[in-house]
Amino acid sequence: MSVIEAPRTPRPATARRTNWEKWGWIYMRVSGVVLVVLIFGHLFVNLMVGDGVKAIDFGFVGGKWASPFWQWWDVLMLWLALIHGSNGMRTLVNDYTKPGTAQKVLKGALFVVAAALIILGTLVVFTFEPCPANAPLELLPSFCSAN
């Protein structure tokens, strides 16, 4: 004979696990708001301040990335946008594929691509040198000194 539990009987305590879906949902909302601020700030500085879009060239980027403030601004925008977009794609993979090998492969590919782009983009921002030492003079931009 089987016993049916009485209604509203508390369930036995189980180990608490992190609810990754909840944290992914929260991340999407918070990062979306922060990205709006970062992107509009980026657009304002690049397009409205100074000579506008006509001033954007190699020298403009070199001068902007000479400041740690703008380096971190752009890196934060890069990280948030790539993680935000990858998390959105992960949600689409969950919605449109059945759990199994294909889903794991797609999620793994998303992770690898996002991680590679974050690493490469961060390296570009922090190692960007518009006037490298010992470079041929004909390859240097006009604003570099001939030292």
TrEMBL record:
Places the protein is found: Membrane
Q: Where are the transmembrane segments?
A: 26-49, 69-87, 108-128
Task: Quote the SUPFAM superfamilies the UniProt record gives.
Answer: Fumarate reductase respiratory complex transmembrane subunits
| GO terms for MF | metal ion binding
Principal cellular location given in the protein's record: membrane
Q: Does the keyword ATP-binding apply?
A: no
Give an example GO cellular component term for this record: membrane
Does the keyword Metal-binding feature in the UniProt annotation? yes
Q: Where is the signal peptide?
A: none
**What keywords is this UniProt entry annotated with?**
Heme, Iron, Membrane, Metal-binding, Transmembrane, Transmembrane helix
One Pfam family this sequence matches? Sdh_cyt
**Name of protein:** Succinate dehydrogenase hydrophobic membrane anchor subunit
